[in-house]
Amino acid sequence: MVDPDVKQQLDDIFSHYSRESGNLIPILQEAQEEFRYLSSEVMQAIARFLQLPESAVFGVSTFYAQFKLVPSGRRIARVCRGTACHVRGGARILREVENRLGIKSGKTTEDLEYTLETIACIGACALAPTMTVDKKTYGQMTTKKVAEVFSERSKAE
Ligand code: FES
Q: How far apart are CA 118 and CA 43, in angstroms?
């Protein structure tokens, strides 16, 4: 049984589309934007709407890296692991962020506030080591600066 709020949000999304299978990817994209990830109940509802087998919807969702099947945090923190950042202590910055958030790279905090990822290069090598939180870039990072970026969170034990 789909949660009534989720159903309402899905109906709003479905109202923009016909039931053609070619609409699968745009619907998945819109649903992910709305819910921040694609739960199995959302994928099942999309399959019903498009009259597709659930396995087809699941197959497409797992094929494309852009789709997330587990909830991600409201904020995405990314630490650069590119060469320029690495030689200037990027690994130490990543460890400090992991420590602050209490999660490893690729994971989401229990309160769903942050997802932590690494990235190959954010294109600001002159500012190495770098990291981002959502659209904001932080350069010349130090462990002290990491503490400032996440000052609202107490350090994980
Ligand atoms: S290598 Fe880190 S910003 Fe380019």
A: 28
